[in-house]
Amino acid sequence: MIEATDGQSRPLLHPAPYADVPTSPFRPGPAGTHITIRGLCKYFAGWPLYENFDLDIPKNGIVSIFGPNGCGKSTLINMIAGLVPIDRGEILFDGKPLRDTRVGYVFQNYREALFPWMRTIDNIAYPLILEGKGKAEVDRRMAELVASFDVRFDLKRYPYELSGGQQQTASIMRALAPGPEVLFLDEPFSALDFEMTLFIREKLQEVFMRTGTTMMLVSHDLEEAVYLADHILLLTKRPTRVAEMLSYDEARPRTVDTLSQPQFIATKKESLRIFQQEMRR
């Protein structure tokens, strides 16, 4: 049970993540949809954060999530990734449940995301070990990731011996190690200095261009959200709805010159207009 502010007890309908109990016949998304969300409900203290929320996330794109504080941006990706239980609804990946889908997650707090008792290289390899991969396969994948991220720090050191940017780099490498179908990133740049932010942005772009992995990125920085995205998901105040899903198809790789391109400026302006309109409601 959950206790509401009015003193009434209400049942927590499905305390386990992904209680696949749709409230109505499931409606698939349009062609090209990767993640389909139908009838999603999430309550805190009896008050709705998400209620009968529907969303279609396109495949092989980067979706940036932007919205007012408290609208549940991080909660949304945490529910999709199975880290936070949903109260009602259904979420499918290419028509499959989460248990049949390989996902990766990059946490905002990289200092707590890595196991301090493991060397950094062992942290990165951990998902592969869990899958039962042999040493040769693990070593091959580690070599690929090191080359891809141009790693120049000692991966045999422990996480606490690394800088924040190096720890976040290791966190992203770990999330990518098993080749996820979907990569979730919860404000991955918020605790990084500007130099490291630029480096990680470019590496994520390179990974996306090479693999086409569907990514969902939570951001509090509108310029960052637009710069990286193929789609900008703009959310409303709670109970949270989709205000708009804007498309942004500027060619990659995007560079500093992208910031002055007419399409970037127009997309950022429209995103800001929608955000401000929602804040005035």
Automatic annotation (TrEMBL):
Residue ranges of domain ABC transporter in the record: 35-262
The keyword Transcription is annotated on this UniProt entry: no
Keywords: ATP-binding, Cell inner membrane, Cell membrane, Membrane, Nucleotide-binding, Transport
An MF annotation (GO) of this entry: ATP binding
Record-linked Pfam families: ABC_tran (PF00005)
Name the record gives this protein: ABC transporter ATP-binding protein
Family statement drawn from the similarity comment of this UniProt entry: Belongs to the ABC transporter superfamily.
Species name: Robbsia betulipollinis
InterPro entries reported for this sequence: AAA+_ATPase (IPR003593), ABC_transporter-like_ATP-bd (IPR003439), ABC_transporter_ATP-bind (IPR050166), ABC_transpr_FbpC (IPR015853), P-loop_NTPase (IPR027417)
